[in-house]
Amino acid sequence: xxxxxxxxxxxxxxxxxxxxxxxxxxxxxxxxxxxxxxxxxxxxxxxxxxxxxxxxxxxxxxxxxxxxxxxxxxxxxxxxxxxxxxxxxxxxxxxxxxxxxxxxxxxxxxxxxxxxxxxxxxxxxxxxxxxxxxxxxxxxxxxxxxxxxxxxxxxxxxxxxxxxxxxxxxxxxxxxxxxxxxxxxxxxxxxxxxxxxxxxxxxxxxxxxxxxxxxxxxxxxxxxxxxxxxxxxxxxxxx
Length: 239
What we know:
Structural class: alpha+beta
Oligomer: single chain
InterPro entries: Glyas_Bleomycin-R_OHBP_Dase, Glyoxalase_6, VOC_core
Number of helices: 4
CATH superfamily: 2,3-Dihydroxybiphenyl 1,2-Dioxygenase, domain 1
CATH class: Alpha Beta
Domain VOC: 124-238
Organism: Nocardioides szechwanensis
Distance between the termini: 14 Å
Radius of gyration: 17 Å
Pfam family, one: Glyoxalase_6
Largest sheet: 8 strands, mixed
CATH architecture: Roll
Shape: globular
Protein name: VOC domain-containing protein
Number of strands: 16
Number of domains: 1
Helix content: 10-25%
CATH topology: 2,3-Dihydroxybiphenyl 1,2-Dioxygenase, domain 1
Strand content: 25-35%
Strand order of the largest sheet: 2-3-4-1-13-16-15-14
């Protein structure tokens, strides 16, 4: 009962406005979503992006962010300018003047990077090169087993996995891991495999080190869980 990575979800004060930004940035098309708005990939990304309504303020850097790739310095500059036109802003997180990547925030302050051309780690990846995460080596091992994605990096307590079908990598930077003051603004949704059973997926994830959690979600069709680092994720009902 290996789940599929169905979506990366953003909590958003204005889901439609944030979806318009990312649609313009990625060139993805919007789709109906029962709880907000979704964007569907037009490449090998393998997951959708969902934008869900929330009035919780953003007070700390996100636990996850996108690393977007570029093919040349001109391409990198064009992507940065496109983001700024769509409503992004530049961020200084201490990267220094010599940093080759560009750090930006979307209109609701969610961080993302536009990576320099020639980055060997993301050379085989598409426009979304990575979902870069703050997390331990243990949580990288957990997600490798949970999704049955092989480790493509495991060094100095930094880990990365990638689907055998391609698409972005998911990376974890190792210690020190930032304190978690509350619910993450980004989380992932998992879906049972075709013909699979939600409860069987949940039980398997528990045996790997996840836990069920109660965020006050009430009577909903999905199961809210936390990975070994305490990061929330959802297991959707079978479809």
